[in-house]
Amino acid sequence: MEPRRVIEGYYSDLENPPVPVVPLKIFPPTRRKHIVVEAKLDTGFSGPLLLTPENYLSLGLHLYESTENVVGLIAGGYRVELRVSRGIVELGKTSVPVEIYTAVFVKKNIIGRQLLNEFKVVLDAKNGKVFLENP
Amino acid sequence: MKTIGIRGLSEELYRRVKAVASLRGIRVSDAFQEALKIWLSIRPEVLEKFSEIEAEAELNRKALQEKYDELVRDYRGKYVAVARGRILGIYETLEEAAQAVEGASAKQGIIEKIEPREKKEVELGWSLVEL
């Protein structure tokens, strides 16, 4: 039987009030290398995964880009073009192929609704814990 | 809140910012703060790296664009790999196409599932540029 809990995260104090983050192992499509990053859960982001340009470049994701025209709408009404690539996200024992976005001004790794909606998300703020579970 | 004057700011630019801020129903100071947050988030070394990548990306996009209708007609559902300004080949899987680009010693690569294209818009929120 598939384990219910996929991954456990925590509430990071780097922001005030603390934000839920989870560790992610990210691979390029060829799985030749990987990085482990902490990504913030943000239901205000409708896409799957946004990486900082440094993380995007360190994985070599500029070699697997798509010409898909994705425009990011920032709160406030600004529209920015995003670079779009592909990768594989490993959450615990679950691997999920995803589109990965970046832009020069991005400062945080963010998991958005398109990926979060694959899971049951438990925010236990009282105990400072976050769980992604299989629904 | 403190008042800060900026010497040398173009009046024309200020007028435009004020007009857009007014249209959006926000204060001019909020518009400047938003713009400055984005500006501070951009690191020169990253910008330089992306400029290099973009030069090759432009050639790759052009090479793909020229053949795209043909590819949709003949290879729909397969993957095309593009690097160094040319189409490297057509592949059954994304991974095969990715391997082809890796082998091309390119600065940028494109892997595309061959299908009709559409524009996509995503909400980014605002937290991604918090300082």
Please write out the topology.
The complex is a heterodimer of chains A (135) and B (131).
Chain A: E1 5-12, E2 19-27, E3 35-41, E4 49-50, H1 53-58, E5 70-74, E6 78-81, E7 83-91, E8 94-102, E9 110-111, H2 113-116, E10 120-124, E11 129-133
Parallel strand pairs in A: 3-9, 4-8
Antiparallel strand pairs in A: 1-2, 1-11, 2-3, 2-7, 4-9, 5-6, 7-8, 10-11
Chain B: H1 11-24, H2 28-41, H3 44-75, E1 79-83, E2 86-91, H4 94-102, E3 109-113, E4 120-125
Antiparallel strand pairs in B: 1-2, 1-3
Helix pairs in contact in B: 1-2
Structure description:
The complex is a heterodimer of chains A (135) and B (131). Chain A has a single domain, classed as Acid Proteases (Cathepsin D, subunit A, domain 1), CATH 2.40.70. Chain A has 2 helices and 11 strands. The model of chain A has no long low-confidence stretch (mean pLDDT 90). Chain B is an alpha+beta fold and 131 residues long. Chain B has 2 domains: 31 residues, no CATH class; 61 residues, no CATH class. Chain B is 53% helix and 17% strand. Chain B has a 3-stranded antiparallel beta sheet with strand order 2-1-3, with helices on both faces. In chain B, helix 1 packs across helix 2. The mean pLDDT of chain B is 89. The interface between A and B is large, with 48 and 45 residues.
